[in-house]
Write a structure and sequence with these properties.
transmembrane, alpha+beta, 7-stranded mixed beta sheet, protein serine/threonine kinase activity, disordered C terminus, 6 domains, ATP binding, transmembrane helix
Length: 766
């Protein structure tokens, strides 16, 4: 196996070489009858002492017995050098020859006055050895360069490396050098069969008159424990002194990679020269196959020398079975068995031996039931974790929507005012989903430009209407919350009460009281209605709507402009009391402002022409829209119709009839039949004033409510009053607008109106 280890691993290995006993290289053995050791080193086959004991002459080790203890040597190809063998591993051999590994050059003090010169030259051609890339070239000296040339005939590659040892302008009072560091450099070499290292003097190239110190040295070997060492620079003036004082420099071994043959495993396995013995397998020397050759290794469960044959390891010697089990050795492995009355694998590192307490059939049933219960528990745990994750995700989403829709702002406002807290209820989406059967389509009351309205019932049995608005502008969240708070405080008999809101969805949900008898539009224009509107009912509804608008315009803490007054936004309850709804386009107006500038919004036929031209909505814009509703009550006609030819709108046609003094041609026949002429003309003149193209000339809603109340009172009171209106004598009565929260409406008609079947709330677009 080829060694490509990093430097720290090499150091660790070399440390073991010194520390381990002589037989530390596994279970290495030699050929029978051959000497197995030379001194302290075991010589494993394919190496051997003597030509008959090694695989071939290249693996022959010479044992020099003149030393005590004897030393093993490996001659190089030319036998000019003998390398002392320090250690042999499964893939490498470690050698030492300070003369072969060392280059040295000493110079005189004059220019180019060289007194000694030496180079390093190593060749291992036509041998199973290759210079390992774990070796390094270490150069020591000042102003010297070690230039290495490397050649591999097996891969047909040539390589080179350079290392310059430099002392700079080192003054003489600097005594120490370090390796690597001042006066020392290192460079690595690549794998190959040939290496030449030459020392070159560089002081003249660097502009120096002479060298700082006379001698320089280069050495090839693996650094190992000598990775770093210090030396005295003054010793560089004398080669003998330097080498004697720095034995660690020449103590670095040379590392060679060895291999069997020149071919890889596939090419050699069927050859008669195949080296791997019994119970072993082949490993390519170089996985990239740039180099041929291979190594052998014992199979798992076997030990010994893989080149001579591996023998089975008796695992039962170190019994790996439980104490009361039986171990049986097998080739390359072992088996454990349990005694009677036990079951299991019998291994210490397995399940061991377990007493048999029940029959095998019962055991199998128990195991099956246990596995089934365990599987069900696993499934239920996974399901619970999934549900927990989903609930957490939904909760997080609700929290994000709550913040996005201004929930934090609403909480801040309600926490500082107990009155607001009592009147503004925050509903959860869970409550509203339950109330509407998850917003079932069968619960839809109507759809319009501002959203969809659903009918629902709370847990206490209260019927509500839930409006699911369209997306709101995130930049207007603060304004939206302020309007919710304000509208929830609007308590008026003729205004649909906002009960609260839900902010846990992508679009806010508004919750209103439910009004059961449909819209004013339905009762005016549906001729098949079971309860046709009489003149008295129309007058009553007109007064109720007027008073509600007067309350919004002038009796709230901030004036509220509805901006979309039309007959479809006027609802009738079970007693046909009118209630204004749909504040989707409403705006709160500061007390010191008289108008709001916005994009034109509203329903065609009801929009104030002045607002349409100026984009400035005032309270008189609501008055204009109210005037159109009043004309609807008088005429029973739609505000726009394709049958109106050139006039198009009802308001235009009504004004033309008033100017031509032929009101009877446009007024509803039932109104003509049931009303008094004075009442009809009084209401018609008031409608004409409401529709004045000049907003400043229109009456206020408070004035409209009072004038309509006077007309109504003229129907039922004959007592002469101090108040007179157009020659009609009236009684004094409570006709003022009550703007406080305890406002109530009392009508003589409430007692004569019979309740009919409740009509669902519907929203229409014109």
């Amino acid at each position: 196996m080829q060694m490509h280890s990093v430097l720290p691993q090499i150091f660790c290995f070399l440390s073991l070489v010194v520390a381990l006993p002589p037989n530390a290289v596994g279970a290495a053995t030699t050929k029978p009858g051959c000497q197995s050791r030379c001194g302290n080193l075991e010589i494993p086959y394919p190496f051997g002492i003597g030509s008959k004991c090694s695989r071939n002459v290249h693996f022959n080790i010479n044992c020099n017995t003149s030393f005590d203890p004897p030393k093993p040597y490996l001659p190089d190809r030319s036998e000019s050098y003998y390398y002392e063998v320090v250690n042999i591993s499964e893939t490498q051999i470690f050698l030492k020859n300070s003369e072969a590994q060392l280059a040295m050059a000493c110079y005189g003090m004059g220019f180019n006055n060289k007194t000694e010169n030496s180079t390093i030259s190593m060749t291992f051609l036509e041998s199973p050895y290759t210079l390992s890339d774990t070796n390094q070239i270490t150069s020591i000296g000042c102003d010297d360069m070690a230039m290495a040339s490397q050649l591999s005939y097996l891969t047909n590659t040539f390589d080179g490396s350079v290392c310059a040892s430099y002392c700079g302008g080192t003054p003489y009072y600097v005594h120490n050098g370090s390796c690597p560091g001042r006066g020392c450099c290192r460079t690595s070499i690549s794998r190959g069969e040939y290496l030449r290292v030459e020392l070159l003097d560089m002081h003249s190239y660097w502009g120096r008159e002479r060298k700082h110190f006379r001698c320089s040295f280069a050495f090839v070997g693996v650094t190992g424990d000598y990775d770093k060492f210090n030396f005295s620079l003054s010793h560089l003036d004398n080669s003998t002194t330097f080498l004697r004082s720095n034995e660690e420099f020449t103590g670095m071994p040379l590392v060679l990679d060895w291999r069997i043959g020149d071919y890889n495993c596939i090419e050699e396995q069927n050859s008669t020269n195949y080296a791997c013995g019994k119970n072993s397998y082949c490993i390519n020397y170089d996985t990239s196959l740039n180099f041929g050759g291979y190594h052998c290794k014992c199979k798992e469960g076997f030990e010994g020398n893989p080149y001579l044959g591996c023998h089975d390891i008796d695992e039962c010697i170190n019994n790996r079975c439980v104490s009361y089990g039986t171990c049986t050795n097998t080739p390359g492995s072992y088996n454990c068995s349990c005694p009677d009355g036990y079951y299991g694998d019998g291994k210490r590192d397995g399940i061991g031996c377990i007493p048999i307490l029940v029959s095998h059939s019962k055991l199998a049933i128990g195991i099956g039931l246990g596995a089934g219960v365990g599987f069900l528990l696993l499934l239920s745990t996974c399901f619970c974790l999934f549900k927990f994750h989903q609930k957490r995700k939904i909760k997080k989403r609700k929290e994000n929507f709550f913040k996005q829709n201004g929930g934090i702002l609403l909480q801040q406002q309600t926490s500082t005012d107990e009155c607001i807290l009592e009147k503004t209820q925050l509903f959860t989406i869970k409550e509203l989903e339950k109330a509407t059967d998850n917003f079932n389509e069968s619960r839809i009351l109507g759809q319009g430009g501002q959203g969809t309205v659903y009918k629902g019932m709370l847990h206490d049995g209260k019927i509500i209407a839930i409006k699911k608005s369209k997306l709101i502008n995130t930049n207007q969240v603060e304004q939206f919350i302020n309007e919710v708070v304000m509208l929830s405080q609007v308590i008026h008999r003729n205004v649909v009460k906002l009960l609260g809101c839900c902010l846990e969805t992508e679009v806010p949900l508004l919750v209103y009281e439910f009004i059961c008898n449909g819209t004013l539009f339905d009762h005016i224009h549906d001729k098949s209605s079971d309860f046709p509107l009489s003149w008295n009912m129309r007058l009553k509804i007109a007064i109720e709507v007027a008073e509600a608008l007067a309350y919004l315009h002038s009796a709230t803490s901030f004036p509220i402009y509805h901006r979309d007054i039309k007959s479809t936004n006027i609802l009738l309850d079970e007693k046909y009391v009118a209630k204004i709804s749909d504040f989707g386009t409403s705006r709160l107006i500061a007390m010191d402002h008289t108008h709001v500038t916005t994009q034109v919004k509203g329903t065609f036929g009801y929009v104030d022409p002045e607002y349409f031209q100026s984009n400035q909505f005032t309270e008189k814009s609501d008055v204009y829209s109210y005037g159109v509703v009043l004309v609807e009550l008088l005429t029973g006609q739609r505000p726009t119709s394709l049958a109106m030819q050139e006039e198009k709108s009802l308001a235009t046609r009504f004004l033309l009839c008033m100017d031509a003094e032929n009101l009877e041609t446009i007024v509803d026949a039932q109104v003509l039949e049931q009303s008094k002429r004075e009442e009809l003309f009084a209401v018609a003149k008031l409608a004409q004033r409401c529709l004045n193209l000049n907003g400043k000339k229109r009456p206020t809603m408070k004035e409209i409510a009072m004038e309509l109340e006077i007309v109504r009172m003229s129907q039922t009171h004959s007592t002469i009053s101090e108040t007179k209106y157009q020659d009609i004598q009236l009684c004094k009565s409570k006709t003022r607008l009550m703007a406080d929260d305890n406002y109530t409406w009392t009508s003589n008609y409430d007692n004569i109106i019979q309740s009919s079947d409740a009509y669902p709330l519907e929203i229409h677009t014109i």
